[in-house]
Amino acid sequence: MKTTNLALPSKAQLSWQNLDLGVFCHFGINTFCDQEWGEGTDSPELFNPTELDAAQWVKLAKDAGFKYFVLTAKHHDGFCLWPTATTDYSVKSSPWKNGKGDVVRECAEACKKEGIHFGLYLSPWDRHEPCYEDAEAYDDFYSEQLTELLTQYGPIMEVWFDGAGSEGREYNWERMIGIVKKYQPDAMIFNMGQPTIRWVGNEEGVAPYPCWNTESAAKISMFSDEKVNWLPGTPEWLPAECDVPIRKLHWFWHPNDEESLRSLDELMHIYYNSVGHGTNLLLNLSPDDRGLIPEIDAERLLEFGAEIKRRFSNSLGSISGTGTEIELSLENETTIDHIVLKEDIAFGERVRKFEVSVFIDGEWKIVYEGSAIGHRYIKQIPSNKSTKLKLVVSESVEIPLIKEFSCYCANSLE
Ligand code: FUL
């Protein structure tokens, strides 16, 4: 099959896109200071979770149906959750486990045990480290931190480079990317240097529609309209990830903040607009100062996972096919209120325009007209009884390869 003009995903990107759901985990010195952005001046003495249990965090993610887990090994405050040799500003200077603990290791082991992928966030911006002022010295420092993380904790599936605070700053990305490629060649690289996945451009968990997999310009951070200056060799295929906290506006845990927990409806809205638009969803959980995910957050996550399953694990009918017209016949007349479409993106994103019709009262009625299908497109349609549906692709680049055309009665409020 000739696909010369189409951007194609790498094998690693394809596997990553198939994961769909990840848990982001913000935990660190901020957790103990009721703050989001520490200045790097808080004493390590404050870091003292009394019941830290990374197994609880990861098992929860797994039980809710999430497939990967990304931990903030170091946030902007510079405090390291592993006993790095690069600085004393870390768990080793804290009272937790008498300075002998390693949160990164505990998470890595829990992920291994639960069989879910592990990723790490390492903030380039470091408000504690004195050598941050000296670009070259800091590149050495950061390279060493990256090397430690990528060589001591087993397979790393994603490296999250946050642009916040680094607006206008140049790091030696060639060097950093070289380190990732050397030690974790299959790891996804988030949004900086030579990324393999990109930021969706907001922290609402909402991807635009269409959200093509080939967007070549993304913003560096929430705090700048600056475009990211990516290295040559950045792949054309660049799927997006939607990162969003389960507690509105808060990435770290704060006391008495329960009311900012998103409702199930809000989470489902996020799901339709992220996974339903073909991106991955990286939903943030914040362990509290005990070192546990608070019970209400844990329950909400489980409810969310259960609701996704309830709506989308029993299709009424499903078909795959090649070409511009595909019909999906159902065994019995059934109420339909959702459609799910997927292209075989291993061969690129081909569909540019399509419509879906439902056979109602003896005639075909168009219920939806769209543009992108890509990895996945979920759409709620007006609820109708029918025995068959039709997908017509009116514009495409090369022959459409539809991996899945399915319908559901999810009976949702979305
Ligand atoms: C932002 C950071 O400033 C937030 O604190 C958080 O880490 C979020 C994921 O990215 O840019």
Task: Please provide a written account of the structure.
This protein has 414 residues and is of the alpha/beta class. It has two domains: 11-312, Glycosidases (TIM Barrel, Alpha-Beta Barrel), CATH 3.20.20; 317-408, Galactose-binding domain-like (Jelly Rolls, Sandwich), CATH 2.60.120.260. It starts with 10 loop residues before the first helix and ends in a 6-residue tail after the last strand. The protein has an eight-stranded parallel β-sheet with strand order 5-4-3-2-1-10-9-6, with helices on both faces. Strand 7 and strand 8 (224-227) form a beta hairpin. It has helices spanning 11-17, 54-63, 103-114, 135-152, 173-183, 264-273, 295-312; strands at 21-25, 68-74, 117-122, 158-160, 188-190, 198-199, 219-221, 224-227, 240-245, 280-285, 317-322, 325-343, 351-360, 363-370, 377-396, 401-408. It is globular. Helix 2 (54-63) runs parallel beside helix 3, helix 4 (135-152) runs parallel beside helix 5 and helix 6 packs across helix 7 (295-312). The chain is built from seven helices and 16 strands. 21% of the residues lie in helices and 28% in strands. The mean pLDDT is 96. The structure holds beta-L-fucopyranose (FUL). Beta-L-fucopyranose (FUL) is lined by residues 36, 162, 164, 221-222, 243, 251.
Question: What is the CATH C level class of the largest domain, in words?
Answer: Alpha Beta
Helical stretch tally = 7
Proportion of residues in β-strands: 25-35%
Provide the succession of SSEs.
Answer: HEHEHEHEHEEEEEHEHEEEEEE
Number of beta-strand segments: 16
End-to-end gap: 39 Å
Task: Report Rg.
Answer: 22 Å
List cofactors, ions and other ligands: beta-L-fucopyranose
Mean pLDDT: 96
* Strand line-up of the largest beta sheet: 5-4-3-2-1-10-9-6
CATH superfamily of the largest domain: Glycosidases
Which class best fits the helix and strand makeup?
alpha/beta
Counting structural domains, the number is 2
Function: Alpha-L-fucosidase is responsible for hydrolyzing the alpha-1,6-linked fucose joined to the reducing-end N-acetylglucosamine of the carbohydrate moieties of glycoproteins.
Pfam families: Alpha_L_fucos
Keywords: Glycosidase, Hydrolase, Signal
Family: Belongs to the glycosyl hydrolase 29 family.
